[in-house]
Amino acid sequence: MSRIKIPIFISTSILVISAIILIVTTITTSKVNKLQYYDVEGDSIPSITHVVGERKASGKSSRVSNFVLYKRYSYYGTNSVIEDVQKYIDYLSENDSFTVYSQLDPNVVVGQISLGKKSLKTGKDILLTIEYEVGRYTISIEKALK
User: Fold this and answer.
1) What CATH number is attached to the domain comprising 28?
2) 34 φ/ψ angles, rounded to the nearest 5 degrees
C-alpha cells in the first residue's frame, strides 16, 4: 500500500506545481500584452503596445550582470511586424529622445534595429534593441546601473 501512496503524492505534487507555473506564466504574459511602459530602474520607456496597441506576449525576462540591467519583452502573432517596428521607432525618436542607430529596411523580414538615449535618472546610456522576424519581435533594453 505505501508504494501506491508515494507515486500518487509525487504525481499530485507535479500537477500542482505545473498548474502554478502555468497560472504565473499566463498572468505575466497577459500583463505584458497590455503594458504601457517598460520600467527600467527609474526610467519609463513607452512600450511597443503603448504605441501600436495590444499584442500577444510570449515572455518577459529581467536580469542584472556586471552592473548592467537587461530586460527582454517578446511578442508574437502579428501580421504587421514591419509596420509595428517602424511606428515604434518613429514614436521613440520623436517623443522620447531616442537616437536611431540603425535603419529599418522594409524589404528585410528578419532583422535588428538599435536605438539609444541617456537615462534621465543616472545619465548613463540606455540601449533598446528590436529583433524582428515573421510574426514576432523582441524588445531588449540594457541600462548601466553604475
Assistant:
1) 3.30.310
2) -110, 5
Of 23, 73, 24, 79, nearest to 49 (Cα)? 73
Residue 41 domain boundaries: 2-144
Neighbours of 114 (CB within 10 A): 15
> pLDDT tens track of the chain, all 146 residues?
555 556 665 656 555 554 444 444 444 444 556 689 999 999 999 999 999 999 999 999 999 999 999 999 999 999 999 999 999 999 999 999 999 999 899 899 899 999 999 998 889 999 999 999 999 999 999 999 88
Phi and psi at residue 119, in whole multiples of 5°? Answer: -65, 135
User: Structurally, how many domains does the chain consist of?
Assistant: 1
- Residue 78 backbone phi and psi in degrees, to 5: -115, 145
